[in-house]
Amino acid sequence: MVRKLQKVVLIDDNETTSFLNNRLLQRLDLADNVLSFTNAEQAFAHFWGKPAPSVDEAPDLVFVDLKMPGMDGFEFLNQYNRLSPELREKTVMAVLTTSMHSADTSRVAQYEGVEYLAKPLTEEKMQKLLDKHFAGLN
Fold it and tell me: Which CATH architecture has domain 5-137?
C-alpha cells in the first residue's frame, strides 16, 4: 500500500454521492484530509484562485463530476489546464461521472493525464488509481 495522501478532494453537486465517496475514503484510510465541494468554482478558487497559488497547498487527488450547475467538470478542467505545469504535476485529476457517452469520454481524453472513472467509486477503482499514480511514493 502507498503512503497516505495529504489531501483528496471530491467535487460533486450530489451530496449523497459525496457522502458515500467520503465514507469510502475514510474507511480505506488513504488520506489525511478529504475535502468535499458541491460547487466546482468554489473548489477551484480554494486551491488555485489565489494570486500566487502554492504547490504545497495543492491536493494530491481530485475527483470531479462532469454534469454540475454553474461551472461544470469541463470548465473546471479548462481552468485547471491553464495552471502552470508545476502546479498541475502535484495533483492527479480524475473525472468521476455517470456519463459513459462517447462525446464526454473523448472530450476528457483531450486533457493530458486526466483519469476517467464511472460512478460509483469503489475500493478496486481507488486501488488501481493509487497503483498507477502513487505507487512510487511508498
Answer: 3-Layer(aba) Sandwich (3.40)
